[in-house]
Amino acid sequence: MISGVLTLASRTLRSVMTPRTEISWVDCERSRDEVREQLLDTPHSLFPVCRYELDEFIGVVRAKDLLVALDQGVDIAEFAARTPPIVVPETMDVIKLLAVLRRAKGPSGDGDQ
């Protein structure tokens, strides 16, 4: 176990990141029906929400929460903006990222402070 932690500590985010071409993301400019279908057809629980392209990042949403919001007529971009991204350098090591993510969750444990 210790060797696994040491190996993880020496790895940068770049070495564990998903390649851009493999990221499943929601385009907030697509129709509600298209977004709903995408969420139901993709086996991920979290999605980045962007405008037109991955570089126009708005926020991250839980699929189940966005499905409820879609049913309630909530604007996708406004909904995603409630959970802005955590931006870190790709040179950061994985252990430091875990600490950043833990702090970002806040006292409630779900990111809402």
Molecular structure report:
InterPro entries: CBS_dom, CBS_dom_sf, Ion_transp-like_CBS. Keywords: CBS domain, Membrane, Repeat, Transmembrane, Transmembrane helix. It comes from Serratia fonticola. It is found in: Membrane. The chain is of the alpha+beta class. It has one domain (2-96): Roll (CBS-domain), CATH 3.10.580. The protein is 40% helix and 12% strand. Strands 1-2-3 form a three-stranded mixed β-sheet. The longest helix is centred in the C-terminal third of the chain and has 12 residues, at 94-105. The model has no long low-confidence stretch (mean pLDDT 87).
Radius of gyration, in angstroms, nearest whole number: 16 Å
Q: Secondary-structure element order, as H and E?
A: HEHEEHHH
- Number of DSSP E strands: 3
**CATH 4th-level superfamily:** CBS-domain
What is the helix fraction of residues, given as a range? 25-40%
Count the DSSP helices. 5
The CATH class name reads Alpha Beta
Strands in their spatial order, largest beta sheet = 1-2-3
CATH topology: CBS-domain
User: Could you say which structural class the secondary elements and strand pairing correspond to?
Assistant: alpha+beta
Q: Report the average pLDDT across residues.
A: 87
Quickly give the CATH architecture.
Roll
Largest sheet entry: 3 strands, mixed
Give the DSSP E fraction (strand runs of 2 or more residues). 5-15%
End-to-end Cα distance, whole Å, is 33 Å
- How many separate domains make up the residues? 1
* Parts with pLDDT < 50 across at least 5 consecutive residues: none
> What gross morphology would you assign?
elongated
